[in-house]
């Protein structure tokens, strides 16, 4: 059985899409050397640890306005 279950973790986010995006971004940070605040994570892989952090409220998933995301993407293209 997977921990945390999808039913339990969906109480922390507004959609499955935002969960996937948040978990993948955090997993990338962990892969690149960021430290986790979890004392004993059950998962051995970064995605699992990221999901545990989201479920344990170590990481907050905030909804952003679509216009903010578009402006952020435009700014990155100009670099």
TrEMBL record:
Its EC number is 2.7.7.6. The keyword Transferase applies. Signal peptide: none annotated. SUPFAM superfamilies: RPB6/omega subunit-like. Keywords: DNA-directed RNA polymerase, Nucleotidyltransferase, Transcription, Transferase. It catalyses: RNA(n) + a ribonucleoside 5'-triphosphate = RNA(n+1) + diphosphate. Belongs to the RNA polymerase subunit omega family. Promotes RNA polymerase assembly. Latches the N- and C-terminal regions of the beta' subunit thereby facilitating its interaction with the beta and alpha subunits. This is DNA-directed RNA polymerase subunit omega. The lineage of its organism: Bacteria, Bacillati, Bacillota, Bacilli, Bacillales.
